[in-house]
Amino acid sequence: MLVELGHYALILALLLAAAQAFFGLAGPALQRERWLAAVPSAACGQFVFVALAVGVLVHAFVTNDFSVRYVAENSNSALPLFYRVTALWGAHEGSMLLWILVLTLWTMALVARSRYLPPAFAARALGVLGVISFCFLLFTLATSNPFARLIPAAPDGNDLNPLLQDPAFAVHPPILYMGYVGFSVSFALACAAMIEGRRDQLWAHWMRPWTVMAWAFLACGIALGSWWAYYELGWGGFWFWDPVENASFMPWLIGTALIHSLAVTDKRGLFKSWTLLLAVTAFSLSLIGTFLVRSGVLVSVHSFAADPSRGIFILILLVVMIGGALGLYAWRAPLMKSAAGFDFISRESFLLFNNILLTIAAAVVFGGTLAPMIADTLGLGTLSVGPPYFNPSFLVPILPMLSLVALGMHARWRRGGLGEARRPVLLALGAALIMGLALSLGVYAHPLTLTPIGATVGLWIILAALIDPIQRLRRRQRLPASVAGMSIAHIGLGVFVLGITFVQSNTIERDIALKPGQSAQLGAYQFRYEGGQDIEGPNYEGFRGKVTITRNGAPVSVLYPEKRRYLVQGTVQTTAAIAPGLNRDLLAALGEDVGAGAWSLRLQYRPLIRCVWIGALIMAIGGVTAVIGRRQRGLAPQDERLALNAGAARLHGEGGAR
Amino acid sequence: MNRFLLPLAGFVLLLVVLLVGLKRAPDKSILPSPLIGKPVPQFTLPNLFDDTKPVSSESLKGRWLLVNVWGTWCVECRAEHQVLLQIKQQARVPILGIDWKDQNEDAMAWLAQLGNPYERVATDRDGRVAIDWGVYGAPESFLISPAGTVVYKHIGAMTEQVWQSEFLPRVNAPAGTAAPPASPLSAAGASGRGA
């Protein structure tokens, strides 16, 4: 009974989404003031009913209601309670529900902030969000109903995929979706600006905090996923250029470009149409990612159960949402004329380079992801595109981009040159060069050609990002949150670049069969296999090995890698054991039992790998700092509203004249 | 031409690629098995209904046979059970069940309640034999030739359509020639959409 109520709640949410879309878009168009008032109410109601549906499904999981097909397929009575809750997003149907819940959360946030926006503009943006929500609710109800019954009920469930039985799985999808779906707000604001045909750049000012928040969530989500893959899959890598990883990475790259081009549009009124296009593209790439993951066109470790009928349905939704927005763009973007100009060496031009190079990088990833499909389409046979393509091609646009970061941060607006920042920036470059060479030639031996370059660029970015805060501190000036946020984010980028550089050039990997008592040497570290024993968990059985690590005879760590067989699905899973450290990770994973007590082992030494995730986290912290600070710094609400009303009045005047 | 139309044009191009990709989406259930073309793995397992007559890999030879790996704990197995009963009624290919990681009482109760499509049922309590067969998860079905080689493997629930388009053509093909797998399009036409 409760399950059917959850289903009805979802249907009611669909109807409310339709109301939100209709009143939000038709109200301003037909100038019905009263219709505008209905939009926030519809949005709130929609949130309540979606939350109710999610609650019902969680309840079904917690109470082991195996008469619900989705529960029976993704849970088991032996599954610990915690994973029974997170199993909600363990497969396609439930994760769609999570997607929609996150969308309604962002919608609620926009409703809460809409008093700072002109009413008609806010209504249009919420209307666009209503269209998106309607599409996804319709898709879920029509092709992927999580509340479908299984009659007769199964005596017990099929269990959650063992890979997903991990604490990281509790947070990775929600945070990733917060990022992915968060770009829907930027998308909606861009669409609203285009529908209104706004000639000012106020929309860019409104869009900035939303974009940065979504971008920060996405950075966290991707980093979390990478870290999870690293320790859970036991492969030792942290990025595989898997189609689904790429699907989350492309919106992030475009989102990064968007943040920077928004700065130009907001401050100087330039790049307007380009910024709108990026805002549409960032969310479109999220949607295309959804299509790629769920339609079965690409093979990936992340793939959900393939169903071609779903693919066609999503494709139609893509046409409605992306096609609609791009059509709007073709119609309205010509209106967005930029008045001012800028010098060749100015902040504007550096941000333009940033945009161009990031877009090229996203295109490189996009091309590589779709290439196997295109080759198959053209009958060129099956093509496998992996790290050998992505690693070098991605560097081509990204390395110049990174080299320009330090200069771009300090270039002046409009006028040419670096101005007074010239000296400290060049000093920072000198210091970075010396430290980079010392690191790559001294501390970490046997580097690749690119290692000193990567180390120097990473250090230069960090040092250059510190110039502004240090100068302001010395002059006893306030450090505005926007400057602090930018500095923090760029320091994060530098840390990230350092991490990638050294983990790529100085990692040592060995696959070796060891008997108890035998050992292997990796750099300065000695790995000794001590033997192992059979183990039994709540829903698995397996083998646990013991590996002790010493460095020059001094004990460093003891690792217990495991190999588990999950009883219900019969899947075998390797759990790598990792001794983490800020300067290096040591890793051991079990391969196969090769007989006579010996096991094949995969042993790894990975320097500075933590910097990859810490860097991403610092970038996200920088973004959040800028957004939170901006609110405190900004105009008092009533002043801001006055300013906006003035802007709106101006706009109405223009509209009348047209 | 208006340069602001270019993104839309790019999107249309992308749509065409995605649409074609979707049409040609690989069917995940025909994952090639390394076993195909090879003799069935050696095994001897207890017989669910008769302790005195164990089921061995030798006894599979001499006629076409469908080997179906199932368990009472498996949701999809319940979904495919009706199809297996229909295959039994056609009396073309007998079915050997491998009851995987299950309890004998549960298995007997299940067959008593839902009907027994199997000629014989071997019980693989600890799942060792299923590992030799490369079983990812139940249900999976293997087509075994009279010579005792694995001809085809299907992952997931057996459906009327899969049986008509992938299994029967191979059984009907003249001995010694590898039956061409029916293309997805012709399969959809031939199945009568009964699945």
Plain-language structure description:
The complex is a heterodimer of chains A (658) and B (195). With 658 residues, chain A is an alpha+beta fold. Chain A contains 18 helices and ten strands. Chain A has three domains: 1-161, no CATH class; 166-333 and 345-413, no CATH class; 508-609. Helices cover 65% and strands 11% of the residues of chain A. In chain A, strands 2, 3, 4, 5, 6 and 7 form a six-stranded antiparallel beta sheet that branches. A four-stranded antiparallel beta sheet of chain A has the order 1-10-9-8. In chain A, a hairpin with a 2-residue loop joins strand 9 and strand 10. The model of chain A is unreliable at 632-658 (pLDDT under 50). Chain B has 195 residues and is an alpha/beta fold. Chain B has one domain (29-190): Glutaredoxin, CATH 3.40.30.10. Chain B has helices spanning 6-23, 75-90, 104-114, 128-132, 160-172, 184-190; strands spanning 44-45, 55-56, 65-70, 95-100, 120-124, 140-144, 150-155. In chain B, strand 6 (140-144) and strand 7 (150-155) form a beta hairpin. At the A-B interface, helix 3, helix 10, helix 11 and helix 12 of A face helix 1 and helix 2 of B.
Topology summary:
The complex is a heterodimer of chains A (658) and B (195).
Chain A: H1 2-30, H2 33-62, H3 69-74, H4 81-86, H5 92-113, H6 119-143, H7 167-196, H8 202-232, H9 243-268, H10 272-295, H11 308-332, H12 347-377, H13 387-410, H14 422-443, H15 450-474, H16 481-506, E1 508-514, E2 519-522, E3 525-536, E4 540-551, E5 554-559, E6 562-566, E7 572-575, E8 577-579, E9 584-595, E10 598-607, H17 609-633, H18 637-657
Antiparallel strand pairs in A: 1-10, 2-3, 3-4, 4-5, 4-6, 6-7, 8-9, 9-10
Chain B: H1 6-23, E1 44-45, E2 55-56, E3 65-70, H2 75-90, E4 95-100, H3 104-114, E5 120-124, H4 128-132, E6 140-144, E7 150-155, H5 160-172, H6 184-190
Parallel strand pairs in B: 3-4, 4-5
Antiparallel strand pairs in B: 1-2, 3-6, 6-7
